[in-house]
Amino acid sequence: QSIQPLIDQDYMKVKAALYDLGEVGMNLMDDSQTLNDMQREYFAGKVDYSAVERARNELNKTKNKLFLKLIKYIWATNEFEPTINYQTADPHKLYKTMDDLENYKDSIDDMHADLLNAMSQPTVVGA
Length: 127
Hints:
Elements: H1 4-43, H2 49-89, H3 100-119
Helix pairs in contact: 1-2
Protein name: Me10
Organism: Macrosiphum euphorbiae
């Protein structure tokens, strides 16, 4: 059983999300330039205000797409990064049997017990 196909699949999701981010970034630059051009033409008296408003609306739509693509990228990296960690941590156990929250609870319980032991009365030897 190999984890390689899973790693490749997750990597391709990250790569696709990055490509989408790059594409939206280019669209954002284009829409920003269009808004700048429309504002200049409006002040020069060449277009009416509705052209500026249309350009602003397009820019806002592209910004919304950018946020969605960014969330998609973060989601893809969150799936990709643990795959590598699980494989390198223990190659014989690709998936942990214990939940991370259970490990966290055990650590808190151990810390609580250590604190209680530290606060208890010291034992006197030979008394």
